[in-house]
From TrEMBL:
Protein name: Extracellular solute-binding protein
Domain of life: Bacteria
UniProt keyword annotation of Signal present: yes
Organism (species): Paenibacillus gyeongsangnamensis
Signal peptide interval: 1-26
PROSITE patterns noted in UniProt: PROKAR_LIPOPROTEIN
UniProt keywords, alphabetically: Signal
UniProt key word tRNA-binding: no
Coiled coil regions, renumbered to chain: none
């Protein structure tokens, strides 16, 4: 996050604001139920909201979808929409001022300014109250709740849910697999056998490469899924015997490097993979010049038309997601930011705001922004709602997803415009993946030492990996680096801090 003010300044301002708000609350007490401050269920809940705007024009106060949501939730929503281009700057200024809307979108729950705000007591710990709101606990995954806990193991906001399963993983050309007479791989050895067969038997008929891949400046890109399949973890940290271990130190990482170097030497990945961008890598697959890619199953529509034009026999079910490799596949964090309630809001009203979100997540209420207004944004044909997506977008329906959202657990895998057989296949594979998918357990964990050394350390590790994969350095160079890292006091301190943070968060203390 691009912080315009220092954490120290923000913390000081927030502490003052907290003290002031506590004083005002004590003096003024609760106002009537007409303003939503009372404990009764009657009366309209007036609530100020700040959230992100990703469309060109914000919904106006008389927006029909907004008014329909307000009627269904017995509320009056005073929404401040802030462009995504400068949301983080606006949020930082707002947090530092202490004048925080009663429901505020926090894009990065672990940015220093929000961490400081929580530490200063500026936001409600909603953990004890969640049991009273069934939609919050049933329609937001446990993964999302776990990974948005702060360092004290408590939740200071409602996660905006996203599907946690079916994160980007290996996608195979099933038609090529059938041509070489092999089954969908389940181990790294079988994965190599498939790639080698794609190279030797040329099922694409055009000398295509087996696996198109790329790297990012800050990580290993799609090659990271090869590494993760060896280490069995999603991310840079593995929980091992109760401790978090930096994955570069694992012996499995060495094995993955040998595997990747072999892939490069045998031309199973692009010769220029280290300089390829994501879009260029995807274009190789889209152009029928690769047999495997890393992506979500639901992106099939991005590739299908081009592949069908090249090969008329290509079927949608030939875009085939691999279930798992070595018992591993990645699980997403299950959230995209969170909605937080400042402590300046009295407890009674805080509970009503949680009730507002919970009610908003009811199927019939959430459907208002999903489909819009009947006769304007959708029509009903044979009992099915047919959406005019252009009109719904014009009427700002999707914008309200930035406040409250209900995630379809299969949204990443299935689409309404996919044929039934395709959706059935992707759904079946996603259900299988869910049995052993792994989330990044380090999300949200705070280590002062990691903040200081990790960016440069990751760069050093990535540079070493690239040189070994390209054959410029021998594998022994990796052994030398790992030995240095194991003897590095900062690395040891970082690992201990990450472990302490994980255990504290897990214990909820």
């Amino acid at each position: 996050m691009n912080n315009k003010r220092t954490a120290k300044t923000a913390a000081g301002a927030l502490a003052a604001a907290l003290a002031l708000s506590a004083l005002l609350t004590a003096c003024g007490g609760s106002k009537g139920t007409a303003t939503g401050q009372g404990t009764g269920a009657e009366g309209t809940l007036d609530v100020s909201i700040m959230s992100i705007l990703l469309s060109p024009t914000p919904p106006q106060d008389d927006n029909k979808i907004k008014q329909t949501i307000e009627k269904a939730t017995n509320s009056k929503l005073k929404i401040q929409w802030v462009s995504g281009n400068n949301y983080d700057d606006k949020l930082n200024v707002t947090l530092a001022s202490g004048d925080i809307p009663e429901l505020t979108f926090i894009r990065d729950p672990f940015a220093p300014v929000f961490r400081n705000a929580v530490t200063q007591g500026a936001f409600w710990d909603i953990t004890p109250f969640l049991k009273d709101y069934p939609n919050l606990t049933s329609k937001i995954s446990k993964t999302a709740w776990d990974l948005t806990k702060m360092q004290d193991g408590k939740n200071y906001g409602v996660p905006r849910p996203r599907p946690s399963e079916a994160d980007p993983f290996f996608i195979l050309r099933k038609d090529w697999l059938d041509k070489v007479g092999l089954k969908v791989p389940t181990t790294t050895d079988e994965l190599y056998t498939v790639m080698k067969a794609f190279a030797d038997k040329n099922p694409g008929g055009n000398g295509a490469i087996p696996y198109t891949t790329y790297v990012n400046p800050s990580d290993m890109g799609s090659l990271g899924q090869i590494e993760n399949s060896f280490t069995g973890v999603n991310g840079l940290w593995k929980l091992q015997d109760g401790k978090l271990v930096y994955t570069a130190l694992l012996p499995e990482m060495r094995k993955s490097l040998e595997f990747e170097a072999k892939m490069y030497k045998e031309k199973l990945i692009p010769e220029d993979y280290a300089s390829l961008k994501l879009s260029q890598s995807n274009d190789l697959f889209r152009g029928g010049k690769a047999g495997m890619i890393v992506d979500k199953a639901g992106t099939m529509s991005d590739y299908y038309d081009k592949l069908k034009a090249i090969d008329p026999n290509f079927k949608q079910t030939d875009f085939y997601p691999v279930t798992s490799i070595n018992g591993y596949n990645p699980k997403g964090p299950g959230f995209n930011g969170l909605m937080a309630i400042p402590k300046s809001v009295p407890e009674a009203k805080m509970k009503r705001i949680l009730k507002l979100i919970d009610t908003w997540m009811n199927d019939d209420v959430f459907a208002i922004q999903q489909y819009g207004i009947e006769g304007t944004d959708y029509t009903v044909k044979d009992g099915v709602k047919v959406i005019n997506t252009e009109q719904l977008t014009k009427d700002n329906g999707p914008d309200f997803n930035q406040i409250v959202y209900v995630a379809d657990p299969y949204a990443s895998s299935t689409k309404v415009y996919f044929p039934k057989e395709v959706n059935d296949l992707f759904k079946k594979i996603q259900d299988e993946r869910a049995k052993n998918s792994a989330a990044d357990v380090s999300i949200g964990l705070y280590s002062p030492t990691a903040q200081k050394i990790l960016p440069e350390l990751n760069k050093k590790v990535q540079d070493a990996k690239t040189k070994i994969i390209l054959g410029r350095d021998p594998i022994t160079a990796w052994d030398d680096l790992v030995a240095k890292l194991k003897a590095d006091q900062d690395v040891a301190k970082m690992s201990q801090e990450m472990t302490d943070a994980y255990q504290k968060r897990s214990a909820g203390k």
